[in-house]
Amino acid sequence: MAAMQSGQLPRWRAVGRPAGPDAPTRCRLQFLLLLACMQSSTAQRAFQLSTATCTLTADATNCQVAQAGDAALRVVFNAAAAQGVETSLTLDMSAATTCSATSEFCPQVFLVTSDNVANIVKILKCSYYRQADYSSHLLTYTFVNVGDKNPFVIKDGHDFSRAVVPPGAVRECICYCAGTCSTETNNRLHCPNA
Question: Which candidate, 144, 90, 152, places its Cα nearest to that of 117?
C-alpha cells in the first residue's frame, strides 16, 4: 500500500457511498417487498372444523357427521369402558358413506379426544382422496389429540400401530400406495414417532 500524504483521506472514504437506485427502481423494489410480505401471510393452512362431533360408544366403521366444506373431523371416544378396553374408529377412505350419509368427502384432519389408552383411529385405503384413487400422489393425514389425559393409536389396513398420539400432540402421516390401491394392504401410512 502506498504511503498516504498528510491531509489525504483513505481511498474507501474518498470514493464515498455509491448512488442508490433511482426513484422508479426504488418504487418497484418496495412494491416487490410488499408483495412478498403479503404472499407469505396467505400461505397459512386453515381447516374448517366439522360442526357435528363423531361420538363413539363402541367400535364403528363410519362417522357420518361431515358436511360440505369440512376439512377437520371431530372425534370423541366416549365408550366409558374400563382402561385398556379397545374402541376403534375404522374409516375406509374409498367408501362414499364413511364420513357422511350424503356422500360428503372425509376430511384428512382429525381432532380426537380419547377416553382411555386403547383407542384406535384406523384409516383404510388411505391413498383415496374424495373417494377417488390418488395413487399418483402422496396424501397427508393429520391427527391431533385435543384430550387432556389419554393417548390414541393410529393404524392402517396392516393393523399395525403406526403412531401413538399423546394428549396435546400432533402426528402427521403420509400415505403411500405400492401397487393396486383398491387392495387395502398396498396402502400404508408412514408416521414419524416425534
Answer: 152
Q: How many CB atoms lie within 10 A of CB 159?
A: 10
pLDDT in tens, 53-86: 888 888 999 888 887 877 788 999 988 666 667 8
**Element (H or E) spanning 11, and its range?**
helix 11-15
Within 10 angstroms of residue 52's Cβ, the number of other Cβ atoms is 14
Over the range 91-113, which residues count as b (16 or more CB within 10 Å of their CB) and which as e?
A: bbbbbeebbbeeebbbbbbbbbb
Type of residue at 34: L
pLDDT higher than 70, residue 16:
no
Report pLDDT digits (tens) over 71-80: 788 999 988 6
Q: How confident is the model at residue 98 (pLDDT cuts 50, 70, 90)?
A: confident
Bridge partners of 173, per DSSP, are 141
Distance of alpha carbon 125 from alpha carbon 92, whole angstroms = 6
Residue at grid coordinates 399418483: 136
Residue closest to 123 by CA, chosen among 153, 103, 82: 153
Task: Tell me how far apart the alpha carbons of residues 105 and 110 are, in angstroms, rounded to a whole number.
Answer: 13
